[in-house]
Amino acid sequence: MIREICKDEAFLAQKAELAAVEDLPVAADLLDTLKHHREGCVGMAANMIGVNKRIIAFDDEGTYMVMFNPEIVKKSGPYDTREGCLSLVGLRPARRFQSIKVRWQNEKFQERLRTFTGWTAQIIQHEIDHCEGIII
Hints:
Layout: H1 9-12, H2 24-36, E1 43-45, E2 55-60, E3 63-83, E4 92-105, E5 111-117, H3 118-131
Antiparallel strand pairs: 1-2, 2-3, 3-4, 4-5
């Protein structure tokens, strides 16, 4: 189901709760909403559709990917950039890292660990910021 984009900064500033198996429908809605906005959006976090859970979805070089309870465990190559967000107006400054190692759970809630670089790494960092209640 395509959900409305949340623009309430007080809600977006809350740290997200851990996701569980019963949140699988939220992930499906998140993917549907991301695909609906694909022309101007490459990633979304659950709080962007009004659900305060640690779930992100993003375009991983042409394939959509969902992460439950993602966390960055290693990062390197800092740089400064400007980013936009469907939940916010305009471009805003952000500090990102060229390479990140992420631990998360897949849709079967099996733990995964992988290193991402470049544009995909930047997208993931933006969405994990959402999970942390960080507004760029």
